[in-house]
Specification:
- By secondary structure, this protein is mostly helical.
- About 80% of the residues lie in helices and about 0% in strands.
- It is built from ten helices and no strands.
- Helix 5 crosses helix 6 and helix 8 runs antiparallel to helix 10.
């Protein structure tokens, strides 16, 4: 039996999460861990006010970072996969840069770009960029040579191969890499927003609530950031399912 996915598993996971939260609140029995029934009404009220503004700021940053990563990483990965000499040149550099934790570059980006949203967006995009680029490159490299030769025999040039062969074949892998990297992107967003800004869920959680011991409001902010990650994850997951279903149906024809 295949495990449940999608909305049903999401509701099941939410129920388990709230139950564990309530049990934890009973065990701790201190104001530092209020029960969900105390936090949820505060969360609902604040989302129509200040927390909603912080949520919108964080969502805008992470969506801009995802868009920037996609429009740069996908062409770069396809280029490396299509052009062997480029792949041979840049593979050693990628092998060195890929495992470096990109969050350590935040001060460098602040120095180069200033303490602005652009530097935060570029940091998140840089993390997603490498994960997507490597996946796309590997997918392009592993395409069957017979498929490429058959398309070239019809007179297709490099641009046509990019559009009709490499990109469609890599799209499911791109979406999978993006879905997997969502959690990392939101975590980095939280760190980047903790200081030197006035709006964002990271700023709200650390500066406006944690530092002044407003624990219920702090957990409302944590719920907001969790909601952002969940919405992004299931949004990409839904698109990924549609793409895979389309490819499956097209394969039957």
């Amino acid at each position: 039996m295949r495990p449940k996915t999608g909305i049903s598993s999401g509701f099941a996971g939410l129920g388990m999460f709230l139950l564990l939260w309530q049990i934890g609140s009973w065990l701790v029995n201190r104001p530092i861990l209020p029960p969900p029934l105390e936090v949820l009404p505060i969360f609902a009220r604040l989302m129509t006010g200040p927390l909603g503004l912080h949520f919108a700021a964080s969502a805008g940053r992470v969506l801009a970072a995802i868009a920037l990563a996609l429009v740069t990483a996908v062409p770069a990965g396809l280029a490396l996969g299509q052009i062997p000499i480029l792949n041979r040149i840049f593979t050693p550099l990628i092998a060195i840069l890929y495992p470096i934790p990109k969050i350590v570059l935040l001060p460098v980006l602040y120095v180069l770009m200033g303490i602005t949203d652009i530097s935060k967006i570029c940091l998140i995009a840089l993390i997603i960029f490498f994960q997507i680029m490597v996946v796309v490159r590997d997918e392009a490299l592993n395409l069957h040579p017979e498929l490429i030769l058959s398309v070239r025999s019809l007179g297709a040039g490099r641009r046509a191969l990019f559009r009709y062969v490499y990109f469609p074949a890599s799209l499911p892998a791109v979406l999978t890499a993006l879905r997997v990297s969502i959690g990392t992107a939101v975590a980095v967003l939280f760190i980047a927003e903790q200081s030197l800004t006035t709006y964002g869920l990271g700023y709200y959680i650390v500066v406006e609530t944690y530092q002044v011991l407003l624990y219920p409001q702090m957990y409302a902010g944590i719920l907001g950031m969790s909601l952002l990650g969940v919405l992004l994850y299931f949004g990409v997951f839904t698109i990924e399912k549609q793409v895979n279903q389309y490819k499956h149906d097209a394969g039957k024809d």
